Amino acid sequence: MEPTALITGGSRGIGLGIAEALAKKGFNIAINGVRPEEKVSQVLEQLREFDIKVIYCQGNIAETEDRANILGKVKQEFGYLNLLVNNAGVAPKLRNDILYTTEDSYDYVMDINLKGVYFLTQSVANWMVLLKEENPEFKASIITISSISATVASVNRGEYCLSKAGLAMLTQLFASRLGEFDIPVFEVRPGVIQTDMTAGVKAKYDKMFEEGLSIQARWGLPEDIGKTVAAIATGAFPYSTGQVFMVDGGMTIQRL
Question: Which pTM does this prediction carry?
């Protein structure tokens, strides 16, 4: 029975890098995204070239009904789920000083980045527990993609930093709760990754990398995150539940 993964926000950027890495390892893939399926059909076909089954589950994880529909489609198409990758997330629509952050911006970011992830993880965790009870040999795990912003303060996008700090605790909470069921939970914390989300600040970070922002003087790539997730998902770290995997080129190492 081939392993199956649900990747939220999996049709581009980091999520697509993860999907490609898991596809290479033989995972069947359920991609979640908010765009209509016809807008991502090319991506789905690219993934199917790995000779795996790929489905698309449209929906906004911030919405209760959408979360139910996403999981409902996975259950209908596959009947089981070995891996949840919480990757979907948004940046503030406008980078704003924390002295002027609006409630609308705060709610927009937190509803998707934290609330949606929390309750999707809750639903998946309960399903995985049932699958483990039916078959104790069933392999299941959860990986959440957060950000160095969980600990690195950016005062012009405070709501984003808070959401990522929340995901760090989410990982510890679910790792603690699911330990008795042998369902490990992990956090992957990327640094500055070259995606659509960072395209608008490319010149800024190009200069910062030149000036020594990180030890490895380059942008991170979606494939860097994908390789990390694939290693965790295939059992390379069997005794590390609840741990944080830094993928930031050494950016967060304190240096003199």
Answer: 0.97
What's the rounded Cα separation, in Å, for the pair 56 and 70? 9
Q: Are 213 and 251 in contact (CB under 8 A)?
A: yes
Q: Residue 89 in contact with residue 149, Cβ under 8 Å?
A: no
* Triad 197, 72, 50: Cα angle to 5°: 60
β-sheet with 244-247: strand ranges across: 54-58, 28-33, 4-8, 83-86, 141-145, 185-190, 244-247
**CB-side neighbour CA atoms (13 Å) of 66:** 16
Give the Cα separation of 47 and 43 in Å (integer).
6
CA trace torsion 233, 239, 240, 241 (10° rounding): 80
**Rounded CA separation 119/71 (Å):** 12
Reported as a single tens digit per residue, the pLDDT across 43-71 is 999 999 999 999 999 999 999 999 999 99
Please report, to the nearest 10 degrees, the dihedral formed by the alpha carbons of residues 53, 188, 171, 163 taken in order.
-100
Q: How many C-beta neighbours within 10 Å does residue 26 have?
A: 12
Buried b / exposed e over 1-22, threshold 16 CB at 10 Å, is eebbbbbbbbbbbbbbbbbbbb
Length of the chain as a residue count: 256
Beta bridge partners of 20: none
